[in-house]
Input
Amino acid sequence: MLEPLKHILSQQRIVLCSASPRRKELLNQIGLNFRIVPSNFEENLDKSSFNHPSAYVKENAKQKAIDVWRRLSGDKDNEPDLIIGADTIVTMDNKIYEKPLNEEDAIDMLSQLSGTKHTVYTGVALLTKSQPTNSESNDNFKVTTFHEGTDVFVAQLSPEIIKAYVKTKEPLDKAGGYAIQARGATLIESIKGCYFNVMGLPIYSLSKELYDIYTD
Output
C-alpha cells in the first residue's frame, strides 16, 4: 500500500505521540522513519458525553496528537510534517475497559471478559500541514481521524488461570488487561477483524489513510 509513497514519506518528519512499544514495532514493520514524542494529554475525557466508544477513542487520539503538535510546532528545525496519535480501548455491553488500575482491577476485568466476546476499538488521528481529504482545520494543522473495531473471543478462564496471568504483570499496562501479542494470546480463542488493531494500531487502515493523504 505505501511502497509507491516511500520516496515521499522518507522525507517527512514523522512523529508517533505514543510510548507504546507495540505501536513502535508496527510502524517499524511497515518501514516508516519516525521519532517518538509521548503526549502529555491527561486522557480525562467524560466517556458519557460520547455516543459511541469509537468517538471516544478518536477524540483521545486527536487530543494526544494536538498536544504534541503544539509543543513541537514552534521549533522550525523540528516541526513535524505528520503526527500519528492513537488510543485503544476494550468494550463490552457498552462498558469501556482501559488499562487496569492494579492487579485486583486486572483480575476483575479478565473475569468479566472470560468466556465472552468483546470489541477492541483503536482511534487514530493524523495531523498534517497539508489539506487531506475529509479533514477538519484546527489552528495551523489539519486533522484526519478514523477508527477500527475488532471482535475478540476470550476462552472460559478459571480463577487460577486469571490470577497466574495477572501475576506476570503483563496485563497492567494493556487495555482490557491482556496482551494478544504476548502471553495473553493463550487466553484468546479467536478474533474477527484486524489483529494489529488489537495490538494498538490498525495497519491497513493507517496505510490507506496515509495513501489518501499523500496522493491527494
Q: What stands out?
A: The chain has one domain: 3-214. The beta strands are 14-16, 35-36, 82-92, 95-97, 117-128, 136-138, 141-154, 188-192. Confidence is low (pLDDT under 50) at residues 132-138.
